[in-house]
Amino acid sequence: MSDKTAITPATHTAPPARFSHGVRKGNILQVAGQVGFLPAEPGKPPVPAGPTLREQTLQTLANVRAVLEAGGATWEDVVMIRVYLTDTGHFAEMNALYNEYFADLREAPAARTTVYVGLPAGLLIEVDALAVLG
To answer: How many CB atoms lie under 10 A from the CB of residue 97?
Structure first.
């Protein structure tokens, strides 16, 4: 049986509860839901990248990528992405940003589910991902 390893990139603060930003076990890497917080500054509370969906979406994807890379994966290894939006009116804009962000993938794009949720005040999007390495 392979070991289960918690993944926390240097850009991330400790999670606010008892969970990991990512967990790798064998060739599986699960990235926990990431939001659009800017890279961590020691001693300061996390701050969103900005008030717009664009700013938060791009930072959220960068935060997911940071966990993937810290766990030894890339977007090419991702088989499933879940997007959580707070506003159904943001779906078309998020899709456009998503398509632009992933335009250069060499392999088949990951499967994706989008759902609508409540997030803490000021946060518009959350994304998690499942990667299979090797």
So the answer is: 19
